[in-house]
Design a protein that fits this description.
The chain is α/β, with parallel strands linked by helices. Helices cover 43% and strands 15% of the residues. A seven-stranded mixed sheet has the order 2-10-9-8-5-3-4, sandwiched between helices. The chain has a three-stranded antiparallel sheet with strand order 11-14-13, with helices on one face. The chain binds pyridoxal-5'-phosphate (PLP). The site of pyridoxal-5'-phosphate (PLP) has 12 residues, from helix 3.
């Protein structure tokens, strides 16, 4: 497909509102001036609303989300901290790897792919082994499994003086959250996913209890020293040069979410899109990868039907229909395809993706049920 007529239905980066593109071409400003301080303040206020952070601190770091994860573990974990990491996919593996740079006592609890940790599992492991910190991924993007027990796990960890560090890279903006109320110690979010902003920045939330750990730490990192970041934050600055154009864009995306669409509706769109995807996939005869209780609303993972290769499917969807989706990754490579239901979710985009999927599978030799009227499934979920 030629020209610009494509849609990104990837697990990031996702399409961004027009205003965010325009914002990136704004004239450069001094990052030590009132102009940047104002942008920074607005960005942080917007993020606080999206993640429900009435207390604690929020940072927007100039790095990809992996940098945010590194900042979290580097500031919160000490060599002797007993860390339990729940691993249910590639991103949980990566967070575990990052934690091993800072703690010598990282214990991995392997979970079946397509599932997510539950409160019962966390309690069992913590009570059996003892822990200073628990790590988990809110929305495991490599499998499409969502951890709905985060509020209960956070409450349990807080009551027991355990730090809970959450990779929320693909849950931020897709799900309503109350991080301060829940008691999450540290949470890392991505901007290029459900916040519909460009890649290159990471969100980091840290609770008041989290700070007690940070300041106690003997050695903190240099670029990501959160104590230094907090000092600069007092005057709405960052210690080092921030990606100013990306801050402009993130501010525009947050304005789009909060003022143009409205936060409640933004979340509802993600829920409606997911409902439509899951119903349509099942009616087409495609098996959804995670069991219903773990299904993510932001990452839709379907098993590849027998005889369909992921590279051929993603290429056909891109070249014939202009719809970009992804294959599996890590242990799910060659087993599943992944659709990002993130950011600018709309009935039109969901319909176009499902029609492209149906058409591509048929072209590649898999017969989907002809009776699936994609448009009416989508419209019903969006309440039209
Ligand atoms: C759950 C999760 N964690 C971490 C990352 C890493 O993000 P980045 O590539 O922005 O560093 C991703 C990226 O897709 C992700 O989905």
């Amino acid at each position: 497909m030629d020209g610009q007529d494509w849609i990104l239905m990837l697990p990031g980066p996702t399409d961004v509102p027009e205003a965010a593109y325009r914002a990136m071409t704004s004239r450069m400003i001094n990052h030590r001036d009132e102009g940047f301080r104002q942008v920074h303040r607005e960005v942080l206020d917007g993020i606080r609303k999206v993640i429900g952070a009435e207390s604690g601190d929020v940072f927007v770091l100039t790095c990809s989300s992996t940098g945010g994860i590194e900042a979290a573990v580097a500031n919160l974990l000490d060599r002797n901290d007993r860390v339990i990491s729940f691993v249910n996919g590639l991103f949980a593996e990566r967070m575990t790897e990052a934690a091993r740079y800072y703690s010598d006592k990282v214990e991995v609890i392997e979970l079946p792919l397509g599932t997510a940790p539950t409160l019962e599992q966390v309690k069992r492991e913590v009570e059996g082994k003892g822990a200073d910190a628990v790590l988990l991924v809110h929305n495991e993007t490599s499998t499409g499994a969502y951890c709905s027990d985060v509020p209960a796990i956070a409450e349990y960890c807080r009551r027991n003086g355990i730090a809970l560090i959450v990779d929320g890279v693909t849950s931020i903006g897709g799900y309503p959250m109350g991080l301060s109320r829940w008691g999450v110690t540290c949470f890392v979010g991505g901007t290029q996913k459900c916040l519909a902003a460009p890649p290159g920045l990471a969100v980091l939330y840290i609770s008041e209890e989290g700070w007690e750990r940070v300041v106690r730490k003997q050695r903190r990192p240099h670029y990501f020293d959160l104590v230094t970041h907090r000092e600069f934050m007092k005057r709405w600055e960052t210690p080092f040069t921030p990606a100013v154009s990306l801050f402009f864009a993130l501010r525009a995306s947050l304005q789009h979410i909060l003022e143009v669409v409205g936060l409640e509706r933004w979340f509802r769109n993600h829920a409606a899109g997911a409902g439509a995807f899951y119903e349509a996939l099942e009616r087409m005869g495609i098996e959804v990868f995670p069991a219903p209780e773990f299904r993510s609303r932001t990452l839709i993972a379907g098993r590849l039907p027998a005889g369909i290769e992921d590279a051929k499917l993603t290429r056909t969807m891109k070249e014939r229909y202009g719809v970009h989706i992804a294959g599996g990754m890590g242990k799910t490579k060659g087993k599943i395809f992944r659709i990002g239901n993130m950011g600018m979710v709309s009935p039109e985009r969901v319909t176009r993706t499902l029609e492209a999927l149906k058409g591509s599978l048929n072209e590649l030799g898999f017969r989907t049920a002809d009776s699936v009227d994609v448009r009416s499934v989508v419209e019903r979920h969006f309440g039209r």
